[in-house]
Amino acid sequence: MLLYESSGDADSLMALLPACGCVAVKVATTEALLEEVSARAPSVVLFSLAPGRQDDLVALHFLRRVAPDLPLVIVAGEATLEIRRAIQALRPVYFAVRPVEAAELHDALCAACPPQADRAPRSRTGTRAGGRHAAHG
Q1: CB of 13 within 8 A of CB of 48?
Q2: What is the DSSP letter of 122?
Q3: What is d(CA 102, CA 99) in angstroms, rounded to the nearest whole number?
Q4: What are phi and psi of 27, to 5 degrees?
């Protein structure tokens, strides 16, 4: 699982992931997110969208073009009608606006990680990254 978080909630989001059986790789920039998606072919992306970050929406739309079947879990800090429409076009498996109950987000993340999900991100060649917990950024 890849986690992109721009709103300061990374630690609380990361705390939800071990119970789901997914290994998370945290990235600090959308550029790093796109590089990791290309390099590792993750099972799911958790994207925390901060208010007013239009560049993040552009990156999400680009991500969807290069990885059309990649499950997206998106948590937004605000949700104007325009933002909701833009996110709906991305076809996320889960979308919520903060505040989100921890149990609800936990359930969404666990559902997004397929059974026997990659316990470590895979490279494009299908090899495991060694079961490491990494934080980039």
Answers
A1: yes
A2: B
A3: 9
A4: -120, 150
46 vs 11, higher pLDDT = 46
CA torsion angle for 120, 72, 18, 77 (degrees, to 10)?
Answer: 140
Q: What is the DSSP letter of 123?
A: P
Q: Dihedrals φ, ψ of 36, to 5°? A: -65, -40
- The model carries a pTM of 0.76
β-bridge partners, 74: 47, 95
The secondary element (H helix, E strand) that includes residue 110 is helix 102-112
d(CA 87, CA 61): 9
Q: How far is CA 131 from the centre of its chain?
A: 18
Q: What is the pLDDT of residue 50?
A: 81
Structure-block tokens of residue 82: 């325009």
User: Closest Cα partner for 47 from 94, 107, 115, 116?
Assistant: 94
User: Using DSSP, how many helices (H) and how many strands (E) does the chain show?
Assistant: 5, 6
Partners of 47 in beta bridges: 4, 74
DSSP class of residue 121? P
Model confidence at 92: pLDDT above 50: yes
